Recover the amino acids of this structure.
């Protein structure tokens, strides 16, 4: 076995980093959410904050909370229970938003430690005066991967100057309340969302590849529902690099590139002497792009999700099945035209450009409000790069927030994207405990209090304090909320299905019709019995 020299490694890293995007065109856009200080008056106003690229930002929603700056462990690099600190909110109190200082440990570790101590969100104050940057996850090893996967709260980086204002107000005894708003983090112009996933067919690149593969499997069903219903337009993309012309004949470039160094991918095992080569990954990436193009021509673009998922399961690298033979078997099982896909792929040995991969390289460069794609995986929704955990529920929130309000499809109101605000105190909405009927409805944008429709009967009211059954059939639902009683084998009710909403005691009875109806007495005898 040949030993890879340090100069070879330097060459590899050099062309990967230098050729990602032309330096004159490089543009990285920091995705922001609005942060509004509501008290104290001395710092009241709106400030920018940069969404962290982990955890679950509440796309489409907002969060009001009380900012706390811990007296100890102010960088959040240790567990807070070591200092006896808890951020858990008491019943009825605002959520706790923890302010921490940048430095000494990974951003993600700070947020994880705060989450374990009960924080609802984290703000990290920069330690230098600079433009906002995106807090990203570290290159995962076994220990960091575990906690990164379990971060579920949102976080954001704020500028040093704003952080100092918050600390000064807190130290001065002021109650600092802020509102974090993600409603404009994703544009929502109409009733269709356009989104894209920058992905990779390599299944041996560690934790991030495992996370990506798991996401594709989990998200496939929702993606296909959105696409088949015409609610969304999805496009897959694949990052490729080029090899500097001076090195196109080197062993490294030949093993990692196709079309004479024009399109390259890193060696899957990071070992040129064994296993699969980078060019194998480029060829499979190209095949997956062509699967999408051919499926799109047949008006069934959602078949891409089936191919990619089946290929992951049937053709893994570790089983030495990551090859054309296995890929063709998957294509055939899905009823796609193999010849069309092969024509789309072209000749990987040709000393010429491949139109499909050239289009991908051009697309990597940022346009409009979208920055350059430099991170794998990257999700883009309505031309804005998604920040947060690549997990089905979190991504669905981001996609659903991209619809114009009231045009969201039913899949956006599923349990996986609900905020679960109705679980605590019924979300502050009306509820009939006897009939187990509530006006609280969880949506991805947050809870709403709307009088419900139950078994064809519409309830009417403000949704907060009152909801009353109305119209035909209302007496079937908990007797319309009216008084009812059985006497001497006869049933009496203050509810009537005549279209009225009010409860009125029946003939021979008097009372409020809701809690009581008493029989009238006429000439010493009871009327209505």
């Amino acid at each position: 076995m040949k030993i890879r020299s340090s100069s070879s490694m330097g060459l590899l890293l050099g062309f990967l980093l230098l050729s990602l995007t032309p330096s004159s065109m490089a543009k990285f856009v920091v995705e922001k959410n609005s942060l509004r200080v509501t008290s104290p008056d001395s710092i009241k106003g709106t400030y920018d904050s940069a969404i962290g690229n982990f955890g679950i930002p509440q796309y489409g929603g907002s969060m009001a909370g009380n900012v706390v700056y811990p007296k100890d462990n102010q960088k959040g690099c240790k567990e807070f229970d070591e200092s006896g600190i808890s951020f858990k909110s008491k019943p009825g109190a605002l959520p706790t938003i923890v302010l921490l200082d940048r430095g000494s440990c990974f951003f993600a570790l700070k947020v994880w430690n705060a989450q374990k101590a009960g924080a609802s969100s984290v703000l990290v104050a920069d330690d230098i005066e600079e433009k906002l940057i995106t807090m990203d996850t570290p290159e995962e090893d076994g220990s960091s991967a575990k906690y990164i996967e379990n971060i579920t709260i949102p976080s954001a980086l704020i500028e040093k100057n704003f952080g100092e204002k918050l600390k000064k107000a807190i130290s001065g005894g002021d109650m600092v309340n802020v509102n974090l708003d993600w409603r404009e983090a994703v544009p929502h112009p109409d009733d269709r969302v356009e989104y894209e996933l920058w992905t990779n067919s390599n299944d041996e690149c560690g934790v991030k590849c495992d996370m990506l593969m798991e996401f594709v499997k989990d998200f496939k069903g929702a993606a296909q529902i959105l696409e088949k219903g015409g609610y969304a337009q999805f496009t897959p993309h694949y990052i490729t690099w080029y090899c500097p012309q001076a090195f196109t004949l080197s062993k490294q470039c030949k093993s990692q590139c196709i079309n004479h160094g024009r399109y390259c991918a890193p060696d899957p095992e990071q070992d040129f002497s064994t296993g699969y080569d980078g060019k194998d990954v480029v060829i499979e990436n190209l095949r997956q792009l062509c699967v999408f193009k051919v499926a799109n021509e047949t008006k069934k673009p959602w078949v891409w999700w089936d191919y990619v998922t089946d290929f992951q399961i049937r053709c893994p690298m570790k089983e030495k099945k990551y090859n054309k033979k296995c890929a063709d078997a998957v294509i055939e099982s899905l009823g796609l035209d193999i010849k069309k896909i092969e024509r789309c792929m072209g000749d990987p040995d040709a000393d010429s450009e491949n139109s499909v991969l050239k289009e991908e390289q051009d697309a990597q460069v940022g346009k409009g409000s979208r920055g350059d794609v430099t991170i794998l995986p990257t999700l883009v929704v309505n031309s804005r790069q998604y920040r947060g955990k690549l997990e089905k529920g979190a991504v669905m929130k981001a996609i659903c927030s991209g619809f114009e309000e009231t045009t969201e499809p039913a899949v956006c109101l599923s349990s996986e994207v609900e905020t679960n605000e109705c679980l605590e105190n019924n979300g502050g909405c009306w509820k009939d405990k006897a009939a187990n009927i509530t006006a609280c409805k969880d949506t991805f944008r947050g809870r709403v209090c709307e009088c419900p429709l139950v078994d064809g009967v519409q309830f009417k009211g403000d949704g907060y304090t009152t909801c009353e059954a109305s119209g035909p059939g209302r007496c079937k639902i908990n007797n319309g909320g009216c008084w009812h009683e059985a006497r001497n084998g006869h049933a009496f009710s203050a509810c009537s299905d005549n279209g009225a909403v009010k409860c009125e005691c029946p003939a021979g009875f008097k009372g409020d019709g809701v809690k009581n109806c008493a029989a009238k007495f006429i000439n010493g005898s009871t009327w209505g019995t």
Notes: Confidence is low (pLDDT under 50) at residues 1-28, 524-529.
